[in-house]
Design goal:
Blueprint: H1 10-18, H2 28-37, H3 42-68, E1 86-87, H4 90-98, H5 100-103, E2 107-111, H6 118-131, E3 136-140, H7 141-153, H8 157-166, E4 169-173, H9 182-195, E5 200-205, H10 209-212, H11 219-230, E6 234-237, E7 239-240, H12 259-266
Parallel strand pairs: 2-5, 2-6, 3-4, 4-5
Antiparallel strand pairs: 1-7
């Protein structure tokens, strides 16, 4: 004879919601059935139940931190296409994924031509950090400089710089893609000096570090900033075909025909 399906009483539902455990109600019937079929003890059942809740809260917390950090929600390491026609030192990527460089306050450079997945992997590192409750900020370098320039006009510059200096992992995308004027070079110098050996920075760039000096307005500040960025740095160089090409939509049967032809074929 089949055992009756486990039910959750209205009283239990009220108690769980008062304890802010209402989300457990989604998996509670399944867990009750599992406990019965596997003859779990009360302690084992509670362990399974609370494990569900901890995992859910961790996922929610990581998702919130990722949104605050401005990370693309689709660029996480599990979604990286291992079959992409790009090459890189997997041991270096493995080291970066460990986030030991963040614990040590070191920097990482992700270098390579356009479209090979530099932004993707930098963002993926940000997601891993968020899951480990590490504070992260991701921003394209040119937008950061524009934002700091605007912050000078409304007296919020000091507050913005404190946030950027204090974040545990700062990710600047497309670094040195455009020339930096004296103000932007000074801002970069300030960030690099204040974060040196105390917080980690990841830079993605299409340019080799030796080319960075040429795009900065103040040679002395540029040399000082670049020298600090490159000291004890991890470099992940990616080469190969554009990773973005794998994101192109695929034309299905008949989709390359004019709409009128498609309508005739469908009637």
């Amino acid at each position: 004879m089949t055992a009756p399906s486990p039910t959750v009483s209205p009283e239990l539902k009220v108690l769980m919601r008062r304890l802010r455990l209402g989300r457990l109600l989604d998996t509670l019937p399944e867990r009750l059935a599992l406990a019965r079929s596997h003859e779990l003890s009360h302690v084992e059942f509670l362990e399974q139940l609370f494990s569900d809740e901890v995992q859910r809260r961790d996922a929610d917390s990581a998702g919130l931190r990722a949104r605050v950090a401005h990370l693309d929600p689709h660029m996480y390491l599990e979604a990286w296409d291992e079959t992409a026609a790009v090459s890189y030192d997997r041991s270096v990527l493995s080291e970066l994924v460990s986030l030991r460089f963040v614990d040590q306050g070191r920097n990482a450079l992700i270098l390579g031509p356009v479209g090979v997945g530099k932004t993707f992997l930098a963002t993926a590192l940000g997601h891993i950090a968020c899951r480990r409750r590490i504070s992260v900020h991701f921003e394209r370098a040119d937008r950061l400089h524009r934002r700091l320039r605007a912050a000078r006009l409304d007296a919020s510059y000091d507050a913005e710089m404190r946030k950027l200096i204090g974040v545990e992992l700062l990710i600047l995308d497309d670094f040195a893609l455009q020339a930096l004027d004296p103000t932007e070079t000074a801002d970069l110098y300030e960030l690099v000096v204040e974060r040196h050996h105390s917080a980690a920075t990841v830079l993605t760039s299409n340019r080799d570090p030796v080319e960075w000096l040429a795009v900065m307005a103040d040679p002395l500040l540029a040399q000082s900033a670049v020298d600090r960025l490159k000291s004890a740095v991890w470099e992940l160089v990616i080469e190969g075909e554009s990773y973005r090409g794998r994101e192109k939509p695929v034309i299905g049967p008949g989709e390359d025909e004019p709409p009128s032809t498609q309508r005739r074929r469908s009637t």
